[in-house]
Queue: 2 jobs
Job 1
Amino acid sequence: MKTMRAIVTERPGDYDVMVVKDVPVPPLGPRDVLVRSFASGVCYHDHLIRAGVMKRGITFPLILGHEGAGIVEAVGESVRAHRPGDRVACTQWTECCGVCRFCRTNREPLCAQRKLYGHDRDGTYAEWFRIQEDSLLPLPPEIGFEEGAILSCAIGTVLAAIRDVGQTRAGDRLLVTGAGGGLGVHAIQMARLCGAWVIAQTSSPGKVPLLREMGADEVVVSEDGRFADAVRRVGDGEGVDVVCDNVGAPVFQEALRATARGARYVLVGELTGDQVTFSTARLFLKGVSLLSTMSTSRTQLADVIDLVRRRRLRATITERFRFEEAPRVHRLMVDRKLSGRVVLVP
Ligand SMILES: [Zn+2]
Ligand SMILES: [Zn+2]
């Protein structure tokens, strides 16, 4: 049997539950594609699964990772769109039904049959990974594999949040929470591209130069977690029209307080799984809409590929690590010692 090297998470737990092992190369069903992985993005989602915070649909042992790019190695018998040798980028979901009302209207992330790789299925922390053909798009030669790996999760998600769900328009004031993270650095760029005036919030003073470089008009540093007053001050005293919230519970109260009347608050990430309580009247008295999005459709990924290929937006990889370093990478991510998005390279 053909084997491959993979980072296998044996059970939920601390960093050392991830070990490099030889495991069988996954067999292909008729619609499956085997991709040789050239880079895998590391996402906070991976940490939440490994730590046992996120539980639904997950069985161990599991190969983490839902951010992959590479070259097609082999295809199942009914695959039409791809052939061995193709460069490909992937969505965050590895399969969906293809025929429900969501799949038919470019909203595959809402499909009831949708499976995420590195979550419901084995993922990209491996030399090869298996994915359904519907979840792949050609990766043009102008985009490297490391950049290709993060197009769907780190960029597609914020394109969905800012452009589509948040309906950001030229002149809007937009707040990005957790701006120094993988979603955050791309949210700043995406918001600028949509014509917004961008306020970036971070709790790490060391990340300010990166946020400026990404195009933030204002950076609010809040080591104590209180930032609403500062955001309102730089937001013309009124607050922001759109929030792209990559953090969730820990910043929700402050970010909500920083909104202007009529704002759209878009939830994208949840780093702790904690609960929040708030008065619902606080929303409707200000006419604030609470919205959310979680991952990227095929058409949104196609738009991201075009934007990056035409250099309207830069896929920002801040560091590269070897497979063996996965436990250390997770630790650095949790300790907020990483900026932007990093990749594991097989
Ligand atoms: Zn991700
Ligand atoms: Zn479906």
Job 2
Amino acid sequence: MKFNDFIKELCDAALFYVSVPTCVCCKERLLRKDRGLCQKCLDTYRSIKTDFCSICKKPLYECSCTNKFLKAHYVKKLIKIFRYVQRDPLPTNNLIYSLKRDNRRDVLDFLTNELADSIRNSIDSPEEYIFTNVPRRKASIQKYGIDHAELLSKSLAKKLGGEYKKLLISKSRKAQKKTAGEERINNAEFTTIKNSPDLTGKKIIIVDDIVTTGASMGNCATLLRGLGCKNITGAAISVAYKDEIKKPDNSDRFKK
Ligand SMILES: [Zn+2]
Ligand SMILES: [Zn+2]
């Protein structure tokens, strides 16, 4: 073992015993080998992951089907790990809640590995892609101290050998009233960064936590398209929309 690796291992061990993490789902104390979930919840997680896409018939983590909205907004593929079902406590959902709120390294690592596997299943040469993210609202960043989609996107880029670029920012400080339909609201919610680069000929993966209707991701993709990018792939931990065949499971978006 290299000296640096040894130091890192030592720091990780120290950090683990200081923080004594618990399972994000059942709150049992974790063992050092665990990442976010205890063995029991991990088994449940794995069984939820076997859910199939009703369009392509593959398990969701191998499926890259999109929905109508995403297709109309230049997102050719949507890579995901599992379906969001509003029922608690589910280890799948609790991983997402924890990612949004807790800034836990083990949860980030776990979800990075899972989504990286899904990405490798669906595209060749992920190292050729630029990774970016659907930006979190400023008010949520202030509340939780992190933009979890940005952390996830950076972590995926590192894992898969791609490059991370921050390309989009959120304009709205407050949650906007959801009365006029999410699509129209989100059109005004994001913008590209100042002096944004020319993306002509570039391949982009845009990362988010949950895709509910595809409105946020689709609107971000439209902005990237405006920078010249024609090859846009979405990657989300979870999808909550119906596959156009399958009925939704009362899947209201998790409140930010
Ligand atoms: Zn557990
Ligand atoms: Zn599919």
